Fold these 4 entries.
Entry 1:
Amino acid sequence: MFVSLFLWIFWLGFLLYFAYKLYRSLRIVSAQECIIVERLGKYSRTLHAGFHILIPFIDYDAYYHTLKEQAIDVPPQTCITKDNVKVEMDGILYLRVLDPQKASYGIEDYRFAVTQLVQTTMRAIIGTMDLDTTFETREVINSKILEVLDQAAEPWGVRVNRYEIVNIAPPKSIIEAMEREKKAQITKKAQISLSEGDRDSRINRSLGVKEEAINKSEGEKQKRINEAEGLAVEIESIATATAKGIQLLASSIKTKGGKEAVKLRIAQRFIKEVEKIGQDGTELVLPLNLSNFKSVMKSVLGSEDKKA
C-alpha cells in the first residue's frame, strides 16, 4: 500500500515536470527581444521575434535580452577637480544591445560594467579640469566619456549612443562663493553701464551745445551778411538817389532862375538848422553875426554873389 502510493506520487510528479518542460519548450518571442538558447551547456542559437520550439531536456533558454534602447541612471559620485574642489556628479546613459551573444558571454552584467566604466572615466576627466571648466564644457565631457565607452563596450556587444551629465553639485561653500562672485560681476556691469550712460549723456549734451553754438553763429553770420547786403543796397540806393538829385539840381541851375531857387533852398535849410540848435537849450558860440541875416547869407553865398 505504501509502495503503490509512493509510485503514484512519483509518476505524478514526473508527469507534471515533463509537462512543465514541454511547456517551456514552446517559446513565443516578442518584437525587439531575443533569447539565447544553449544546447547541452553550449551556445546553440539566438531566437528572435516569433514562435519557436525547443527540445525538452536538451535545449535551455539561458539569457533574455531586449534590443530596445535602454536608459541607465549613473549614481552620483564625488569627483575632485584639478583645483582640489569636490563636486558630486551624476548622469544618464543610453545604450542598445547589438550582439546578444557577446552581451551574454562577453561579460557577466553589461549594465553594471558600463555604469562602473562611466564613473571611473568621469573621475579621470574631471581630475584634469578646473571647477569653472566643468560647468562650461559639459558637452566636451560627454563626448570624451562616450568615446571611451564606445571602445570598451564593443567586445560586450553593446553600443552606447550618448551620455548626458545631469547634475554638477559643488559644496555649499563653493556655491555661496560663486553667488557672491556673480553678484559682484553683476554690480560691476551695472556700474559700468551707468557710467557709460552718464558719459554718453554728457557727450550728447555737449554735442547739443556745440550744435546750438554753431547754429547760433551761423545765424548771426547770416544776419550780419543780410544786414551788410541790406546796408549796401541802402547805400547804393541813397547814392543813386543823390546822384540823380545832383543831376536834377545841376540841370535846374542851368535853367532860368535856377540859381535863385538854390539860394532860397539853402537859406530855408539854414534857418531850420538854426532853429534846431536853439531848441536844444545849449549855449553855442558861432562865428557868424546872426543879428544881420543878410550879412549871414552873404557869408554863406558870398562866392556865388561875387561871381554873379
Note: Strands lie at 26-29, 33-39, 42-47, 50-53, 59-66, 70-80, 86-97, 158-169.
Entry 2:
Amino acid sequence: MIIISHKFGQLGNRLCLFAHFIAVGREHGIAVANLAFDEYADLFETTSADIACRFPARRLRLPVTPRLRRALHRISLAADSRIQGPVKVFAEKVSLPEGQSMDIGSPDFVAKARRKIVCIEGWEFRSADNVKKHADAIRAYFRPVAAREADVQQVLAKGRKDADVLVGVHVRHGDYQEFCGGRYYYTLEQYDAVMRRVQELFPAKRVGFLLCSNLPQDLSTLPSVPVTSGPGNMVSDMYALAGCDYILGAPSTYTTWASFYGDVPLYKILDPDAPISLSDFQRYLPN
C-alpha cells in the first residue's frame, strides 16, 4: 500500500503527483491513499465521497467532512514521523530530496509497496509509461463534481458561440511574481500580444479566447481579440481550459493538467515575444 501524507504545491502539483501513483496502483494492483489531497477532495466526484482519497475508489457510508479529512491528515503525518525500529517491518518512509526523481514503476518500488506500507514524501515520483497506459482511468477518477462541471459547460458554450476555434488562456499572476524570480510573470499586454499571434495562425477561422486567471483581470484592456472570462474558480477554470481546442499559458502543472485531462495541445509561453507556429502546441502528460 502507498500512503501520501506530505503536501507539495497547489492543485496542479497534487493532481500530477497523484496521477502517477494511481497509474502504478492500477498497473500492479496496489492500493493508494492520498491523505494530502484533503483540501481538494470535495472538488472531484470520486474523492468527495472518500475520507482518505483512495484508489481504487471507496465510498464511506458515514458523512465525510473537511474537518474529518484534516484530522486524518494530521494523524497520518504524526504516524509517518514515527516509522522507526520494529515498525519498519511493515511500514517504510520513502523521501525524495529536492531535485531527485524516482521511478515508482520499477520492480524494486513495486515489490516494496506490495510487501509493506510505503509512506511518501517528495515531488518527483514518476511513472510516465504507466500514466500513458492508464490515462483514461486517471481522467475518470478526477472528474469534477456536478456543480463545477455545469460551470465548465456553461462557459464553454458561451465561448464557442461565435468561434470556430476556442483557445484557452491561463494568465498566471499572483505567486508567479516570485516564482523563479518572476521569470514567467507576464503582463496582460504581453498575453494579448501572444493571443494576437495565435489568432493569426487561423486566418480563415473565427478564433475566440477563454481567459482564466488566479487573479481578477480587466478584460476591457484586451479589445483586439474576442475574449470570454472563465468560470472564476480554481477547478472550473482548469477544466474549462481542458475543454478548449488549444491552450496557452506560462509553464505550470495547472495548464499541464488541463492539457492532459482534455487531451488538448498546449503552448507553454517561455518567451512572450517569440514567434509561434501550430507545431509549438503539444499534448502533455502530468509531469
Note: The first strand starts at residue 2 and ends at 4.
Entry 3:
Amino acid sequence: MPAFPNLDRVTRGGVHYIGGVPVAQSVFGKDPFEPVTHSRVEDILHEQTDTLCAYIPGGGSAEGKAGVLVYEAQTNRDMAQIADQLAARSETGLLAGCAGFASVLPRLLQLSCRDTAPLPLCGRLLAVCGSINPVSLEQCAQAEAQGAPRFSLTPEQKLSRDWAAGAQAGEMLGAVLRACSQEPVVVLDTGGAVENAGADKTADRIQIANTLGALLKRLLDDGLESTVLIMGGDCLLGLMRQLDVTEIMPLCEVAPGVVLSQFTYGGRQWNLVSKSGGFGAKTLFYDLQNILERWKKELTAV
C-alpha cells in the first residue's frame, strides 16, 4: 500500500500520483540517481521481481488473488479499512508501504501506543540539505528569501575527500555556529546537482553525503545547540557513519513525513529531524522552527 494521503500521494486505478501527477511525470521521475520510470505500481514492482502482482481497487476483494497485492488507497479512511480487512484474514505476515501505511500498523497489529517522553528542545533550526530534489532546493531558496543565512558548498568542496577536515572548512563552520547562535533558521546545503562531476554518480553521491556528515560531526563536536534538520537519506546515513552511530530512535512526527528522532553521541542525547528530499511545503524550514519553538515553550512550562 504505497499511498500517503496526508502528503497527497495516492494510488488510483493502479497508478501512483504525487500531487495529482503520475509519479513518473513528477519530480521523482527526474531524479538523477534513481528516477521513477513508471507510474503504474505493478510496472514498478516488475522492474524488481517476476512475482505475479494483483491490483485491488478501492472497495475490492483480494479473495482468490495471489502474489504481491497492490491496494488502492486515496484517503486515511481507505487505509484503515484495508488494515481491518487484512486483520480479518490474518494476512499480516509480510506488509509493505511507507509512512502512510505505518500509521495504521498499530490498528492492524494491535500494538499498544504511548506518548513519548518530553525532550529538551532547542527552538533554533539548522537545515542541512544534501538532496537535489527540486522540492528541497526550493525550500532552501525560500528560507534564504525569508532571511535565513545560507552556506552552500562548491562542487570542489563537496566532492573533496579532505576539504571537510581542513582549515577552510573550519572557518566556514565557525561562521555557521555564529549564525546558529543568533538566527532562528540557518541553511547548510550542497548547492544542487554537480554538472559533469564525473562518470560515477554513485561515488559522487556517497562522497557528498560523507562530506556533509563530516561537517556536521565537527559542528556537534564544537558545541552546536540548534536542532538539526537533515534532508535526504544518503546524508542521514553519511552523518551516522561519521559519528559511528548505529542506533537512532524515531520519537514522533513533527509534520507529515518529517520525523523527530534521538541518538546518543559523545555521551549525550541529540535531537535530529529528518525527511525525504521530496517532502514538505516550500516554507517548511520556518514552519518547523515555529513548531520547535512552541514545543520548547510548552515543555518549559510543564
Note: Residues 5-109 form a domain with the Rossmann fold fold (CATH 3.40.50.10840).
Entry 4:
Amino acid sequence: MRQELAAGLLQPQAGIAPKFFYDKLGSRLFEAITELPEYYPTRTEAAIFVEHLPAIRRSLGEDFTLIDLGCGSCGKAGRLFHAGVLPARYVAVDISVDFMRDSLQQLKRELPAIEMIGIGADFTHELELPDDLPSVRRMFFYPGSSIGNFSPSEAGRFLRRLAAQIDSSGGLLIGVDLIKDPALLNAAYDDALGVTAAFNRNLLRHVNARLDADFDIGDWRHVAFYHAAEARIEMYLEARRALSASWPDGAGRSRRHFAAGERIHTENSYKYSPEGFTALLAAAGFADIQAWTDPRSWFALFFARRAN
C-alpha cells in the first residue's frame, strides 16, 4: 500500500484512492457524516430497507452467508439481523481492521447465535474468502453508495469478480446513489458543519502515518462538486499556498511540490439511473435483477443473482 500511495502522489494529477479514507478516525468521521442533515443516502437507504424488508428477506432466503463488503461499524448488517433477517453466518470485510474488530465484537455479543468472522482486506482489488466458507448461498452485501467510487468500467470488473465467487444460489444486495438535483449532491459532500471536510483532510493524516510523510493538514482545504457531464461528485484537497511534501523511499526521500491552488484528487462518486445500473449488473453476469427505490427516486437497493 505504501507503493500505491507514493505512486498516486507523484502522478501529474496527484491522487489518493478513497479506500485510504478509512483509518480508525476516518471510519468514525464517516459515521458522523451519515448523521448529517445534508447526507441523505444513509437515511434514504434505511427507509428503503424498512419499506421493502419482506421482499428483501424473501430474496435472501434462509441458511445463507452474508458477506458484508466495507462493513465499517457493521451497523447496517446489525439492523437487518435485529429486524429478523438472520444469516447462518456473517463475514465482515473492511480495510480498517481495528474499527471493524471493535464493531464485530459488539455485534457478536448482541447476536451470539450467528457465526461471525472478520476479514481485514482491501477487497476493491481482490477478495480471498476462507477456504471453509460454504460455496452455496453466498450473499454479498454492499450497502451505501461505495460502488460509485469505481468508474463504471471499474465497477463492471468489480461486479464480475463478485459474480465469479458465487453460484446461482447466491446473490448481491447493493446500494446505489441515483442521479438527482446537483444542489442536493453538492450539499451532501460539502456540509455546513465541515464534517466531510474533516474526513477529507484526515486522509493526509493517514498518509503521513502510512508513508512517514510530512503533509501539514492546515495547508489544505476541502473541495467537492458535482460534474454533471460525468454524473459524478469529484472531491479534492486543494493547496492553500505553494508547498512541498516528502516521504522516505529507497533512495532517500521523495518530494512533491504543489503550487497554490493545485489539487490532490481523493474521490469520485458516480451516480446512476436505475436503468443504467441494471444494465451494468446484467453485463457483469447477474440476472433476476430487482430494484427498490424511495418515493423521490434518490437512492436504490438492487438484488441480483448470478446468471446461469
Note: The CA atoms of residues 246 and 252 lie 10 Å apart.
